[in-house]
Amino acid sequence: MVKYVAPECGKDGFTCPNCGAYAQQRNWAYREDATGPYNNSSGQYPLAVSRCVHCGDLTIWHYQDMVYPHRGSAPMPNKDMPPEVLKDYEEAAAILTKSPRGASALLRLGIQKLCVHLGGAGKNINDDIRLLVQNGLPVQVQQALDAVRVIGNNAVHPGQIETDNPEMAGSLFVLVNLVTDYMISKPNEVSEIYGALPKGAIEAIEKRDAKT
């Protein structure tokens, strides 16, 4: 997975909030006392624009604050994310720049719902992760789930983790996407390819496995 680089006004490259790709950005700005455009490498002007070289769409800024697109600076959600998780993800994305702590708490809720989607009971997120580990959950996915759980818990019950850090909160979006990709998208891709095999080949595989 490509590393997520949070959008920043005047930055030459970041993860585009429109297409989700890390791409070079063309930046310019307009001053209040003239027509411009002006170079916006410092992000000091009231109206600034970044154009993604990859998709061509615009990101619009008021000084350092992103005002378009409205979903905020979080990475695009995985296309296979369950609807109940996606709702929390998008709500968290909308408030990331204003309240990283609130976004972290929402993503923790989203992870709890994702665990239920994967077979957990939904009563205790820690127990659900333990059950998933017992059922063969890869250690990297377990660590991603626990990272979102612990940081999200600190957002609700302050502890040793600085949850008002936008970069820390932004990294949780990457982890939620990673878990969705590994546990939902990848199995779907494998099932689709396997299902396209000739019927005779699948029957032969099933007979082979039945013997074991």
Automatic annotation (TrEMBL):
Residues 90-164 form the DUF4145 domain. This is DUF4145 domain-containing protein.
